[in-house]
Amino acid sequence: MGALSMASMLDPMGLFGNGKNTAAPLLNGGALGQTHFPAKVKRVIYLFQSGAPSQLDLFDYKPLLNRMNGQDLPESVQQGQRLTGMSAGQASLPIAGSVFDFKQHGDSGAWMSDLMPHTSKIVDELCFIKSMYTEAINHDPAVTFFQTGSQLPGRPSIGSWVSYGLGTDNKNLPEFVVLVTKDKFGQPLYSRSWGNGFLPSQHQGVQFRSGKDPVLYLTNPPGIDGTSRREQLDHLQRLEKLNHDDLGDPEILARMAQYEMAFRMQTSVPEIMDTKDESDHIYEMYGPDSKKPGTFAANCILARRLAERDVKFIQLYHQGWDQHGNLPKAIKVQCKETDQATAALITDLKQRGMLEDTLVIWGGEFGRTNYSQGQLTPESFGRDHHPKCFTIFMAGAGIKKGFTFGATDDFGYNVVQNPVHVHDFQATLMHLLGVDHERLTFKFQGRRYRLTDVHGEVVKEILA
Amino acid sequence: MIPLEFSTFIGRFHPLLVHLPIGFLVLAILLEWWQGFKKTATNGNLIANAWLLGGISAAAAALCGWYLGETGLYEEKDLFLHRWLGIAIVVIAFVGWYLKKNRTKYPKMLQNGFNVILLVSLFVEGHKGGNMTHGDTYLTEYAPKPIQGLLGTDYRNDSLPTFGNTDSLIVYRDLIVPIFEEKCFACHNNEVQRGGLNMAESEAFLAGGDNGAILLTANSAESELFRRITLPQKNIKFMPPTGNALTYDEIKTVEWWIEQGASFEDSISSMTIGENIRPVLLRRYGIDTTPKPWYETVRLPVLDNEKIRELEKEGFQVKSLGADNPLLDIKYVGNALTESKLQALASVKDHITWLSLARNDIADEWLSTVATFTNLTRLQLEKTPVSDKGVERLKGLRHLESLNLYGTQVTDGCLPIIQTLPGLQRVYLWDTQVTRQGAQGLQENVDGLSVIIGDAL
Given an 8 Å threshold on Cβ–Cβ distance, is B323 in contact with A350? Predict the structure, then answer.
């Protein structure tokens, strides 16, 4: 501790990271000041499908699985790769063909099952990556890996890196907002998925809740008005500055930045949540759920409203895709909740001209197996976790439209063409935002960290 | 073709016969020197006979060689020296036979000098012949590095040319000539014109060969040149006949050049670069021809920070496009935009490439100021009261790629003006009074323009 105190006296700001990084954020610019190269994407809406949707029943059409339905998965395909404890002990791994009808859609001829009739209509706007793979085989490590670049908790999430590196385009709202579909269960979703890790805490995602108070403790207590609140904050600022001069704890500055943000959000958030100016036509587009606060559809409208106000990173979470059993029924429910609103969001952004500089991402944390977990019957089956391949899609600025990248083998088990690792995905996302993923770093505990750790290659082939 | 085929048959005995004179003549000289060293004499005319045999076999080899050379499978520049030096050796060998038969008549100096001349000729001739058969690099390719250095040969070189400013490349001079130089010019030049064809001069090239023109502009399939380089390689008409066929990339490049008019002067920027040729140009020549957005091609000095601060005071959010691009992305985020605030942007007008005045109460006249921002590529006017009159003022924006007019007052009346914006790629007209038919008409009228009108409200 002695050495630590000594160090902090010499350079109080240097103890936790780069000195200048811990100061209150600039109006814009963030730690980088400016992007490394022109940003094709100014904001991201990430529709995270938590629990891992089955790519084999939605996008990755594998007729061979139907022909071999019920047969044991050949060892030559499985190659002794890791399975979860849930199906590793099964006497057999019966191949399960999808029970859903696949068709090609649009001019691009993208394959989609009939589970997503609305999204099927806009495939010419989408860029599918069918060769995603990850290292984690269970939910929390996999979500953490996707969101922070490491399976172990404690690193900053993508949105936090973006907030830290690029700063804000609207000082009245946080740069990173999180919306979680309410009343969805299944695998736990920890708030560290939008945590700031070792970055200053004003860069953490701010979760907007679905109830009366989207952001808790934002309203003034009874009897306090805006002016006295302002005055109180000004006094507090001065005290905390003295405190910071004395202790040098960067979290003091972060806390003050958050107080100030909360003050500004007292007017900006009610304006966002007040959706009276949305026409009926828009609600129809997003589907019947869209008028019920907290649903995925309502969150999609909210996401668009936040994007219109230049919030940089808007992360939606929709849980419930973890279909180990009873997949055919359960996945229908999931698709009904998400399909129309996803398609509507992309269409709506397009007609407003926002796909010029907004990127929409849809995907889960890993894929699902081509064999049935548990009993395979003509009506029902389940699919276990499968990190070796899965599909995500994107739409919007900087990427090719009506394009499919990568491919899996005929069994839908291994990637055979253009594999895209989670770090590659993250590197590409940062590239689109104008950031060289190798040059946005933060020094913490003696080493420089970055979102992609020491990996990641930009997937140039999908860039427009 | 029978005579040619028979002479080719004879010609192919050349490699068999050619080693005999080498053996005989070298043996003869070694024997002579051995005798001189040992001071003994061999029986009778052994040495002279060896010379005679050398001369006869050299003549046979030269005869076959002559026919082999006539087959056209060898490049003229290599052939010339090999052919005539070979014939010279025949003569030398017979003269040598005469000299050796009358050893005592002529001085030792002459005898030995003659030996040396023959040896040198043989080495040069043998080496030339080897190079023609196996390639120029055959002997030295695997030589140790220091020896390669001494010989001035170094085969590490990656011969891909690199080009600075790719826009000024002349396709024929910089891309096509290097291919022809390597594979065609050797037999079709000012001196040698096999088949009556001279490719080294553009006029003669256009005139063609014995059977007429070989280039049909913009029609590679019918061009004799292209046909000859893409025949099955076993076909007797296949070019080049030396086995040094054009690679796939080279064929594609030549095809593209012919399709684009087979011009001798046009630069790469004046040619259409299709999706087929783009990867070839990138891989083979390192020329990146992917179309770049306008803002990546403009080169301007970095702006003074003071100017940017002033604009920020007026209520503009100002960002540079990136660390390596000083062009500006500007959005009005202040309270009430006025014309004089907008005019403040004139001080940086060349730098502005993205501009958003969306959701502000702006008047049509103000857009005259915007029209002077020559490097503007993206303009956002959505949710403003701009009407057709405002759009009319944007006429001069030559590089505008994206125009957002959603939620404005524009009608079908603005479509003819939009049609005249030369660089426009996307226009957003949702939630305006523009009709579906109007939008469809615009979409059909202009190639490469997407008209986004969205769902009807």
Answer: no
Q: What is the pLDDT of residue B302?
A: 87
Measured CA to CA, the distance from residue B404 to residue B382 in angstroms comes to 6
d(CA B375, CA B381): 17
pLDDT at A8: 37
The CATH classification number of A25-216+289-462 equals 3.40.720
**Spans of chain A, pLDDT less than 70:** 1-29
What's the predicted TM-score (pTM) here? 0.74
Q: What CATH superfamily classification does B297-452 receive?
A: Ribonuclease Inhibitor (3.80.10.10)
pLDDT for A158-198, tens place per residue?
A: 999 999 999 999 989 999 999 999 999 888 889 999 999 99
Q: What is the ipTM of this complex?
A: 0.89
- List A146's β-bridge partners, or say none: none
Query: Both tokens of residue A389?
Result: 């391949």
**Nearest alpha-carbon partner for B14 in B54, B59, B51, B49:** B59
Instruction: Delimit the domains of chain B by residue range.
Output: 2-151, 166-285, 297-452
DSSP B29-87: HHHHHHHHHHT---STTHHHHHHHHHHHHHHHHHHHHHHHHHTS-S-HHHHHHHHHHHH
Model confidence pLDDT, tens digit, residues A282-292: 999 999 999 99
Q: List residues of A whose CB lies inside 8 A of any B CB.
A: 28-29, 34-39, 169-170, 279, 281, 285, 347, 350-353, 356, 434
Tell me the CA distances in angstroms from A23 to A7, A12, A401, one per residue in order: 18, 12, 40
- B296 shares contact with chain A (CB less than 8 Å): yes
List the beta bridge partners of residue B322: B325
How far apart CA B340 and CA B329 sit, in angstroms, is 19
Task: State pLDDT tens for residues A213-222.
Answer: 888 888 888 8
